[in-house]
Amino acid sequence: MQSSKRISLIAILTLGTGIGVAVWNLQVPLHAQTAPATAVQFAGEAPPPDGTMTLWYRQPASDHPYAPPTGGRGGGPGTTEWVKALPVGNGRLGAMVFGGVVNERLQLNEDTLWAGGPYDPVNPEAHDALPEVRRLLFDGKYAEGAKLITDKVMAKPLAEMPYETIGNLQLTFPATNSVENYRRDLDLDTAIARVEYTSGGVRYTREVFSSPVDQVIVVRLTAAQSGKISFKAEMNTPQKATVSAEAPGTLIMSGVNGDSSGIKGALTFETRVRVLAQGGHTAADGQTVSVEGADSATLLIAAATSYKSYKDVSGNPRQADEQTLAAAEKKSFDAIRQAHIKEHQRLFRRVQLDLGTAPAAKKPTDERIRDFANGGDPQLAALYFQFARYLLISSSRPGGQPANLQGLWNESMSPPWGSKYTININTEMNYWPAEPTNLAECVDPLIAMIMDLTDTGSRTAKEMYGARGWVVHHNTDLWRASAPIDGAPYGMWPTGGAWLSLHLWDHYDYSGDKAFLAKAYPVMKGAAQFFLDTLVEEPKHHWLVTNPSLSPENVHPHGAAVAPGPTMDMQILRDLFADSIRAGEILGVDADFRAQMAAARARLAPSQIGSAGQLQEWLEDWDMQAQDIHHRHVSHLFGLYPSWQINRRDTPELAAAARKSLEIRGDQATGWATAWRINLWARLGEGDHAFSILNFLLSPQRTYPDMFDAHPPFQIDGNFGGAAAIAEMLVQSHDGQIELLPALPKAWPTGSVTGLRARGGFDVDVTWKDGKLVSSAIKSTAGTAVRLRYGAAVKDLRLRTGQTLMWNGS
Ligand code: FUC
User: Fold this and answer.
1) DSSP state at residue 46
2) Which of 418, 436, 575, 751 is deepest in the core (most CB within 10 A)?
3) Helices 671-683 & 687-697, crossing angle to 10 degrees?
4) Which atom from ligand 1 is nearest to the alpha carbon of 405?
5) DSSP letters along 88-123, please?
């Protein structure tokens, strides 16, 4: 039996702050860091896991040899180890599992634990300053306009609230010098992280999962011999919190959230860990629960904050945790585990993707990422695709918060860009795979956030612009702040809410659910209303444009980012007006308002082709003189993807110009920006080009050992954008058409996919061989007409709801 003295000699993981690295000029990330664990020797080689949908490794996160990508602009030392840990989540409660032998660390998150409290950052001087800003920008005095924006228009405070960690649950096991056949893995099909090894002749197994059914994170410790489970459980946190242990075996951490940028923390939170050992002896002492000589043990972790809504923080986290634990404790571990797996598989198993397999698929995941670009491992792309679906299911479930910049997982009090919602691309990209990969439910938290934003955003519209409707600039947070933040070159962009609103139309378009459309329409209408009230006529062509605005976050040749009528705004508004008009028609409402939108739409500045044959990013032909012609954002290509307003069939000249812009921008960028490029090349029907960029995205430069996307540092959007791109290579749908294998790369000659979704309400299965379509099954779930396309072949059909058509492309 171990003594507490012996345990104290074991290196215990400690929290500290990493080196802050400036990330552009916006944030200073500080990362919790773990000290090196005891030097355990690893002997033998555990076999690969049985399933194909598993990430796995031969070392704990702390022992894993790894050099982070070079050229990154952020991330402290903590990041290096953290991006080797494995994520579990139930949409609300998340854990990163490190898999240590003597020290196990579970870094915990709860999706409402953000800094600050309800606040409204609108600058009261903005309203009176905006007419002058408009005049300066129309007069070409961009730097002066930017200065006035900085002085009078930007939000107070200038930064929004960051998402924060709960802290860590630390488990310390008896010291050991060596273990055999160590393996840790994450099974995407069961959503369970496992650690297994043999020590002193005994096989130990650890399982961790976050149950969406019972709302607890569960840790299960077992050994092949009875009486072998001994450990100490403790918690630590960078939050203002206290930890105590209560007999017989409960750890309680309670505290208040952080203050940020002058906004005081208004939340209370509590985390409770119930240690339930079978056999042996359990004791609670001070801040520690220890178990000695048990046969097995189950830990149930509940966590909650006092957040009820963006304007109400009167919840009772202690009561919530106690109720959650009381209910979970009544169930057996097996019952909790089974219910968890069943609910996860209900969503996860809807889509199966087979891109072919090879012996490389038996290697540990980190080795596969290292070797992917050498070819010969098509299954890794399928794993990457399913990992993104796993991440969306685990970070965005009905009733919770939307997936933020890090989804659900964050070890810091001041993560890069606050780990919040950047809505000039990143939040939208998080949801790109949701509809096509059959996870429509996962969009619910985004829809709920958009509904909240109509409230805070209408206040901002009125106070800043004197306008009706609602507006959100380039970021929002838990408190649904909607004013321009960070600085004029990033924040002075009024089109974030409009872009988010397009996801409402998409949600309808993929389902045909008219009841949903009736709820969504007033939100879309409010977004459109804001622009009907604020679009202004530019002097040269008399087009209607946004002003002030910018093309996210690109600096044009006149020393500023702010400018009237950037191409992206015009494209977003073209879609917003079109979708709102169609919604109004379907619902049979608002004929006058529809006419106003149609009139404004016809007067928007068009997408223009510039002197280099490129699609112009701005009203003026500035692209080739811009400060960074390889800029990561490709905002003006919004029209090609995610929009369909530019496409090869209907607008071939604009599609060719978009292609030219893509060539000029180059293939390699930060994680999400790389993923966007893959989607764009897929839309151009160039599968091999798309695949060559996927090779970069799936290399150690842009994919960490745990498969998290490297911006760098970690940002989850690249995972989601990459999965959307893989789907886009196989099936595209728009405007009443479904195109099969539009961008199939030579690297995937034979394969199949089942359960993708298409617009108009269809389930789509496709099988191909030697690069050619073999068969497809198109099942209608909304009874709409559709045109199928495969290469030059076309087939028009109208199925009844529930009816399936088989088509081989002839
Ligand atoms: C935008 C991007 C950055 C980063 C940040 C979260 O500002 O330009 O690359 O993704 O969002």
Assistant:
1) P
2) 418
3) 170
4) 6
5) EE-SSEEEEE---SSEEEEEEEETT-BSS-S-----
Greatest alpha-carbon span in the chain: 84
pLDDT tens for each residue of 370-410: 999 999 999 999 999 999 999 999 999 999 999 999 999 99
Q: How far is the CA of 24 from the centre of ligand 1 (A)?
A: 9
Q: Measured between alpha carbons, how far is 270 from 237 in angstroms, rounded to an integer?
A: 12
CA angle at 439 for the pair 310 and 415, rounded to the nearest 5°: 45
Please choose from 160, 410, 417, 670 the residue to mutate so as to test ligand 1's pocket, defined by most ligand atoms within 8 A of CB.
417
How far, in Å, from the CA of 635 to the mean position of ligand 1?
12
Q: Is the CB of 554 under 6 A from ligand 1?
A: no
Whether the Cβ atoms of residue 590 and residue 582 lie closer than 8 Å to each other = no
For residues 154 and 490, is the Cβ–Cβ distance under 8 A? no
Q: Which two tokens stand for residue 181?
A: 């056949």
Q: How many CA atoms lie within 13 A of 90 on its CB side?
A: 24
Report how far ligand 1's centroid is from the alpha carbon of 142 (Å): 23
Compute φ and ψ for 6, nearest 5 degrees: -60, -40
What pTM was estimated for this model as a whole?
0.95
Q: Please name which of 389, 380, 437 lies closest in space to residue 747, comparing C-alpha atoms.
A: 380
Tokens of 395: 């970070």
Query: What is the SS3 assignment for 697-757?
Result: HCCCCCECCCCCEECCCECCHHHHHHHHHHHHHHEEEECCEEEECCCCCCCCCCEEEEEEE
Ligand 1 atom closest to 417 (CA): 6
The residue length of the chain stands at 810
Least confident of 16-25, 106-115, 249-258, 405-414: 16-25
Compute, in angstroms, the gap from residue 107 CA to the centroid of ligand 1: 25
Q: What is the pLDDT of residues 734-752, one digit of tens each?
A: 999 999 999 999 999 999 9
372 CB within 6 A, ligand 1: no
Residues 501 and 493: their CA atoms lie apart, in Å, by: 15
CA of 585 to the centre of ligand 1 (A): 37
Whether the ω angle into residue 445 lies within 30 degrees of 0, i.e. cis, is no
What distance in Å separates the CA atoms of residue 729 and residue 731, rounded to the nearest whole number? 6
Question: Does the beta carbon of 417 sit less than 6 angstroms from any atom of ligand 1?
Answer: yes
362, 48 Cβ separation under 8 angstroms: yes
Q: Measured from the CA of 26, which atom of ligand 1 is nearest? A: 7
Please tell me the distance between residue 552's alpha carbon and the centre of ligand 1 in angstroms. Answer: 9
**CB 426 near ligand 1, within 6 Å:** yes
Alpha-carbon distance 655 to 181, whole Å? 54
What is the position in ligand 1's atom list of the atom closest to the CA of 673? 9
Write the pLDDT tens digit of every residue in 444-482. Answer: 999 999 999 999 999 999 999 999 999 999 999 999 999
Q: How far is CA 601 from the centre of its chain?
A: 31
Q: Is 422 in the pocket of ligand 1 (CB under 6 A)?
A: yes
Select from 475, 500, 648, 499 the least CA-distant residue to 570. Answer: 499
| Cα dihedral value 686, 688, 691, 693, nearest 10 | -80
Q: Does the CB atom of residue 423 touch ligand 1 within 6 A? A: no
